[in-house]
Design a protein that fits this description.
The complex is a heterodimer. Chain A is an alpha/beta fold. Chain A has 35 helices and 19 strands. Classes of the chains: A alpha/beta, B alpha/beta. Chains A and B meet through helix 2, helix 8, helix 10, helix 11 and helix 12 of A and helix 7, helix 8, strand 9 and strand 10 of B.
């Protein structure tokens, strides 16, 4: 993480109302988006958009040619330009030919990408943004902090100040009045501008049509009033057919602003009649800077499916803390991190991809089915390959990927920490377990890891056997979770085995873009579990579960260690999260939960990987309820707690802010205990709760369940 | 309903199933349009529609203190003699230019279709006057034939050939913004008031 970005993060977090405004917005957005999609099958709608957009991305060249032909046949001047400078020069040449002194614009990200306004102003041409938010930003000489709500970071007082300066009149901070001022000021500009510049939300190849969505009506005016209209359109806006407009028109307003449709949708096919009779002069610039390269990339081609709704920003728990001036450049948020890297290069984006905590919230809401977390990981991988990793980071992975060295180090650390241990919490831990502990007390390493305690556990012999994959946190920090699982499975008549040679699941390496280290972990685990006859491999850490089920296979495939592929696949096939497995045992009748007693109320925290990757958010809840616990759901139960593996150490300020919010949500339920299914979340929330001075009991679902078995006996 | 789902407009032919279906569609359209911030007024005949226009213009003070309204060319407008219009609608200007539209307090335009699901008005606005009259004045009166309401915007789009329509306009509710502190504010660049007058194309016999 570059120091500059870290400093920006710190400043954003200290901003008096930035994160408060963004957080209120993201809370409202969740509810209003859900209402907007009521009665609509979002999954099939987004599958349709993704299919249509992917279809277009595969044949951009052909569609561009078809678009140009169709639009030219309708009388538009159409050019395809590649470099930002070509776009600027083209527009300048039109402006010079028309003797333009004033240009009005409606929102266009492509023109922001080519920094058009500065160029035009330098040439002595007055440029006015007419979207209210964009105009505010232009007056403030800033850049938009959100792709749909550009001025979301400014207050009415800020706007009153800017407008007062612009009009030379002292304006009160009354929103309706400020909007009227904008109307009056910009109306004059609309009527006198010689050229209007717009972007486009969709470009239809077969008809040469452009689709523009606005709520204010400014695009309509920009395209209607001046005698010349120039549309600057990123080539990725192309779709093949006119009816491809339909699914995008259904999703874009709902995802962007939770509206059924925007106030104005204009579909322009060639120049229409000009405002003072005659035919308009219409120019369309198809702009493809770097997009063709992206379209040929097996992974990043997906990012071209984006329809710019900004829902990935609206649901991002990091964006809402730091805003788009920190998390993004021209394009902001998750898609911003990807597009900045692809379009502006690794240098421009370095660090942005580090802001993502990989919670997966954006993937769930993307109407174009762009797998943003995966693309961001790929940015990390390519950045890691392009730039040498810091020595410390490389040292960490060289140890983590060497099981013996890693485990020896953890054992040594558990001895070394003794004088520093402060009850069950500790401030200084090795490796990624070390770091800032101001708002969160970090746990001590267990005196004896699970792997050493395991052989002493008394278990009934049985034909039914399952293996336990502990993962580092349960093995070395929370062995009691492993023991709880053994007791539960024993109760169901299952004997648990612990393959000694198991090691780190590979997730830390995977999420840092260190593919080789991840592959080494995958290979070691494949070997450790091969030849063991078990019905399932139980994991109580969703991140480990995902790593073993999915990421390990990929690491093995891509690292060239294909001789381990069969074993890794077998391990992947048997791996299951503990709640899903217990639920299965309950429904087949092999496990009877005590139940029937009144238990204290708990609240449940959804771990990102359990909910959004494994889709297993119900089994733990059902098990807890069946055991008699009352569940009091907290607000935003599925928003990330801020742990994110090593994220909490790389970005401690962001992580702490997320944790603080989670603790408030927990406290608001009045429940005395928190159940969760991830030892990482447990470390984060238990540590935060302990540091808060009003600790609640934070335990793994397996522990809450096993505790009942003990008291039932 | 099937016809509507296929995207064909429902032609009103007196009493019968079509009337019922048409009534349901108008109801849906009204609910959605009102949810988007528009007002919806029913008129039983073209004459009643003209009456509604007159009432609304008067309400807005058009014809007094030099307040004007513009009415872009359309089938309802052409049903009435200009002299009758001038008499009934004081302050009305029939020539729509950027100057007359920018100076007008109200703009009247006639839409080709309505989309019930979202309360959207759909129009071939290739003629500049349609866009000027519906965007520049602070008040917009939109005329829509009751038998031209289709199920949704997707159905409406299929009724147009983009090769013959340079500017296809979809309008849903008044102009709005939430760009300052996300507070919804009506009438930023376009009209702050949108009234949709849904009228029966001939005197209705249904009771």
């Amino acid at each position: 993480m570059p120091a500059e970005l870290r400093e920006q993060v710190r400043r954003a977090l200290e901003h008096p109302h930035l994160s408060a405004a963004l957080t209120r917005f993201s809370e409202d957005y969740r509810a209003s988006r859900a209402r907007a999609y009521q009665g609509i099958d979002f999954e099939s709608l987004r599958a349709r958009i993704a299919e249509r957009k992917a279809h277009a991305v595969e044949r951009l060249d052909r569609l561009a040619a078809r678009f140009m032909e169709a639009a030219a046949a309708r009388g538009a001047h159409v050019v395809r330009l590649h470099a930002p400078s070509e776009v600027r020069e083209y527009i300048l040449s039109v402006a010079r030919r028309r003797g333009a002194r004033l240009i009005v614009k409606s929102k266009s990200m492509a023109t922001e990408e080519v920094h058009l306004n500065a160029e035009l102003e330098q040439a002595g041409i007055e440029v006015k943004e007419t979207d209210l938010g964009e105009w505010i930003i232009q007056l403030a000489r800033q850049r938009p902090s959100h792709m749909v709500l550009p001025a979301i970071h400014l207050t009415r007082d800020d706007v009153a100040e800017l407008f007062s300066r612009e009009t030379g009149e002292r304006l009160q901070a009354e929103i309706a009045r400020l909007v009227r001022v904008a109307r009056e000021q910009l109306r004059e500009k609309f009527l006198h501008a010689e050229i209007g510049i717009t972007g486009a939300n969709i470009a239809v190849a077969e008809t040469g049509s452009l689709v523009l969505l606005t709520n204010e009506g400014n695009a309509r005016l920009v395209a209607t009033l001046p005698p010349v209209h120039i549309a600057v359109v990123g080539i990725e806006k192309l779709v093949e057919r006119f009816e491809d407009i339909e699914p995008i028109l259904a999703a874009l307003p709902r995802s962007a602003t939770a509206q059924q449709i925007t106030s104005y949708v204009s579909i322009l096919t060639g120049p229409a009649e000009a405002a003072d009779g005659g035919v308009k002069e219409m120019h369309i610039i198809l702009y493809d800077h770097r997009r063709m390269e992206m379209s040929e990339d097996p992974l990043f081609c997906q990012a071209l499916q984006c329809i710019r709704c900004a829902s990935c920003l609206n649901v991002c728990p990091v964006y809402r803390l730091v805003g788009g001036h920190v998390f993004g450049k021209v394009y902001t948020g998750a898609i911003g991190a990807v597009l900045t890297a692809c379009i502006e290069g690794w240098d421009a984006s370095r660090g942005l991809e580090q802001l993502c905590i990989q919670c997966g919230a954006c993937r769930d809401v993307c109407p174009a089915k762009v797998d943003l977390p995966e693309l961001i990981l790929e940015v990390r991988r390519r950045a890691a390959a392009a730039v040498p990793q810091p020595l410390a980071a490389r040292a960490v992975f060289s140890i983590v990927s060497n099981r013996r060295a890693f485990h020896a180090l953890l054992r040594a650390a558990s001895l070394a920490q003794k004088p520093l241990a402060d009850g069950p919490y500790l401030r200084h831990l090795p490796l990624w377990l070390s770091g800032q502990g101001k708002n969160r007390r970090l746990p001590a390493l267990a005196a004896e890891p699970l792997r050493d305690r395991f052989p002493r556990l008394e278990q009934p012999r049985s034909d039914r056997r399952a293996a336990l994959f502990a993962g580092c946190l349960i093995d070395f920090v929370y062995p009691e979770i492993g023991e709880a699982i053994v007791r539960l499975l024993n109760r169901a008549g299952i004997e648990v085995v612990f393959p000694e040679k198991q090691t780190c699941c590979g997730a830390p390496a995977h999420f840092s873009g260190a593919l080789d280290a991840a592959a080494a972990n995958a290979r070691d685990n494949a070997e450790a579990f091969s030849g063991i006859e078990v019905e399932a491999v139980i994991s109580a850490c969703p991140t480990c579960t995902v790593a073993l089920q999915q990421d390990a296979l990929r690491a093995v495939r891509e690292s060239g260690a294909r001789q381990y592929l069969a074993e890794a696949e077998q391990l992947a096939g048997k791996t299951v999260d503990v709640a899903t497995f217990l639920q299965r045992l309950v429904s087949e009748g092999s496990l009877r939960l005590p139940g029937g007693r009144e238990m204290p109320p708990l609240t449940y925290h959804d771990s990102c990987h359990l909910k959004r990757t494994l889709h297993a958010e119900q089994p733990p809840r059902e098990l807890l309820r069946a055991s008699g616990y009352e569940l009091r759901e907290m607000q935003e139960c599925d928003v990330c707690c801020g742990m994110g593996g090593s994220y909490s150490l790389r970005m401690p300020e962001v992580s702490s802010a997320m944790l603080a919010r989670k603790l408030r949500m927990i406290a608001a339920t009045g429940a005395g205990g928190v159940a969760l299914d991830c030892p990482g979340c447990l470390m984060q929330i238990r540590g935060g709760s302990a540091a808060s001075g009003q600790p609640v009991q934070v335990r793994h679902t397996a522990e809450w369940l096993a505790q009942l078995l003990d008291t039932a006996n | 309903m099937e016809a509507a789902q296929d995207g064909a407009p429902l032609f009103h032919k007196g009493a019968g199933l079509n009337t019922l279906v048409s009534g349901l569609m108008i109801g849906k359209f009204r609910t959605a349009a009102e949810a988007a911030g528009a007002e919806v007024v029913d008129a039983r005949s073209p004459g009643a529609a003209l009456g509604a226009v007159a009432r609304l213009l008067k309400e807005e003070g058009v014809g007094q203190d030099g307040r004007t309204a513009v009415w872009a060319d359309g089938p309802l407008r052409s049903m009435f003699h200009p002299e009758l219009l001038a008499q009934m609608l004081p302050g009305l200007v029939l020539e729509v230019t950027r100057e007359t539209a920018a100076a007008a307090h109200a703009g009247i335009t006639e839409f080709d279709y309505g989309a019930a699901a979202t309360g959207t008005l759909v129009q071939d606005a290739s003629a500049a006057g349609q866009r000027l009259a519906s965007t520049l004045p602070p008040v917009h009166l939109a005329l829509l034939r009751a038998d031209r309401i289709v199920a949704d915007t997707a159905s409406a789009l299929r009724l147009f050939d983009p090769a013959r329509c340079a500017f296809l306009a979809l309008v849903t509710g008044p102009s709005r913004t939430a760009d300052i502190e996300r507070v919804l504010t009506i009438g930023v660049h376009g009209p702050r008031r949108l009234v949709v007058i849904v009228y029966e194309p001939e005197a209705s016999h249904a009771r």
